[in-house]
Amino acid sequence: MASKSRPRRFELVRHRDVSGVSGTGVVAEGVEWSDGTVALRWGGHYPTTTVWQDGIRALLSVHGHNGATTIHWLDD
């Protein structure tokens, strides 16, 4: 399978904790795969992993809280 891009790592950074649950700073780590699917690993007391087949935009539409949470790319 040929892909036009490589997987990229990122951190989900919460600048304001709108829900009062996760705190601020790096709250999750993730990978955006070459097909656009995203795997996200939440930290905290109850770590969990989620998969977003619709990609980064879908993830941020749920967890972005209107800019209170952003993506920090670790890879170019």
What keywords describe this structure?
5 strands; 5-stranded antiparallel β-sheet; 11% helix; 76 residues; mainly beta; 1 helix
Task: List unreliable stretches of 5+ residues.
Answer: none
Please tally the helical runs, counting DSSP H or I stretches of 4 or more residues: 1
User: What is the overall shape?
Assistant: globular
Oligomer: single chain
Mean pLDDT reading: 89
Please tell me the total number of domains: 1
Distance between the termini: 22 Å
Sequence of strands across the biggest β-sheet? 4-3-2-1-5
Q: Please provide the count of β strands.
A: 5
Strand content: 35-45%
Give the C-alpha Rg: 13 Å
Order of helices and strands: EEEEHE
The class by helix and strand makeup works out as mainly beta
What percentage of residues falls in helices of 4 or more residues? 10-25%
The main pleated sheet reads as: 5 strands, antiparallel
Give the topology, please.
Elements: E1 8-14, E2 25-32, E3 38-42, E4 48-52, H1 56-63, E5 69-73
Antiparallel strand pairs: 1-2, 1-5, 2-3, 3-4
Describe the 3D structure.
There is one protein chain. The protein has one domain. The chain is 11% helix and 39% strand. It has one helix and five strands, in the order ββββαβ. Strand 2 and strand 3 form a beta hairpin. The longest helix has 8 residues. The radius of gyration is 13 Å and the shape is globular. The two termini are 22 Å apart.
